[in-house]
Amino acid sequence: MPRRFGSFTSEWSDTIRNDTNDPHYVRGPRWLPIRAAGTKLASNGRLLRRSILLCAAIAMLTCASTAEAEPMPPNNPFAASRDALWKIVHDHCELGYQRTGTYAPCTLVDKRSGTALFKASYDPNQYLLLPLDRVTGIEDPALQEFASPNYLYNAWAARAFVSSRLDNSLPEPDIFLAINPKNARTQDQLHIHISCVSPATAEVLKQVNSDDYVDWRPLSFTLHAHTYQALAVNRNTFESKSLFRDVHKKVTADGNTMDHASVAVANIAPDQFLLLVAEGTEDQPIAAEELQDHNCSIVRQDS
């Protein structure tokens, strides 16, 4: 039997219960639609089309014009606001929750963890975890503060939302977290992609022995033609500390900048995780999101 989900925060445990016939709703203070907007790297034609869909969705949610939303790749001369996602989370999800007790257009606002969960509208299974505080991205110095929330583990704790869209049939190793670097994203609010691992990524990660990565070292193979540094962590470590500080130490020790760092987390064995970091450049960004498959085709392979 595939390994199922362990515990996650009690509020999110209550929220994930889905006893309606409409698969697009989850339990909150009332039944709330979770077909909301997300954000996506637009580095090729397929992703560019999704970015355009994002433009329209955000424009509708913020009552802004299409030109004032965020439709384009980050370095596109026609790119508009990179703050659209932040405005949705802060102005609509958080403030709406404070005023009315509802989260829309987010799936959930969790004040205890300082996060919101947001359903990507154009991908069937992907969710985004976002801070309620203003945190621009992986490069933000706030992530290095000891008081910073453990956003990565909070994203992992929300994995059951993805599984619930797949009849709760998703084993933990098929869940994959990803964060894109500053020059490979369209939004300047930290957002952790929670989705399925791509079958190709899952296949090569089967080669990993966590004992070989007690310290940082490069993987012996590439992922999507890119070199990733890897560090194995157990569940207790993952839950008890922010791994962003480990990432920062590694990237700066290599003489690189967090602006170009891309981060991912994979579950490679019971209670064992692999923290992955790719160090790109200004001209050659590396997006960890490309290691995911938002259609979750791996579910068909598992069945």
Number of domains: 1
Q: What is the ordering of alpha helices and beta strands? A: HEEHHEEEHHEEHEEHHEEEH
| Termini Cα gap | 11 Å
Q: What's the β-strand tally?
A: 12
Supply the CATH class: Alpha Beta
Strand count, sense and closure of the main sheet? Answer: 10 strands, antiparallel
- Total count of helical runs of at least 4 residues: 9
Tell the overall outline: globular
Strand content: 15-25%
How much helix is in the residues?
25-40%
Cα Rg? 18 Å
Query: Structural class, please?
Result: alpha+beta
Low confidence ranges: 1-49, 62-79
**CATH fold name:** HIT family, subunit A
CATH superfamily: HIT family -  CDH-like
Subcellular location: Cell membrane
Organism: Mycobacterium lepromatosis
GO molecular function: CDP-diacylglycerol diphosphatase activity
Pfam family, one: CDH
List the helices and strands and how they pair.
Blueprint: H1 10-16, E1 25-27, E2 31-33, H2 45-62, H3 84-100, E3 108-110, E4 115-119, E5 127-131, H4 151-157, H5 159-164, E6 175-179, E7 192-197, H6 199-205, E8 217-218, E9 229-234, H7 235-240, H8 244-253, E10 261-269, E11 272-279, E12 292-293, H9 298-302
Antiparallel strand pairs: 1-2, 3-4, 4-5, 5-7, 6-7, 6-10, 7-12, 8-9, 9-11, 10-11
Model description:
With 303 residues, the protein is of the alpha+beta class. It has helices spanning 10-16, 45-62, 84-100, 151-157, 159-164, 199-205, 235-240, 244-253, 298-302; strands at 25-27, 31-33, 108-110, 115-119, 127-131, 175-179, 192-197, 217-218, 229-234, 261-269, 272-279, 292-293. Helix 2 (45-62) runs parallel beside helix 3 (84-100). The longest helix has 18 residues, at 45-62. It is globular and about 50 Å long. The model is unreliable at 1-49 and 62-79 (pLDDT under 50).
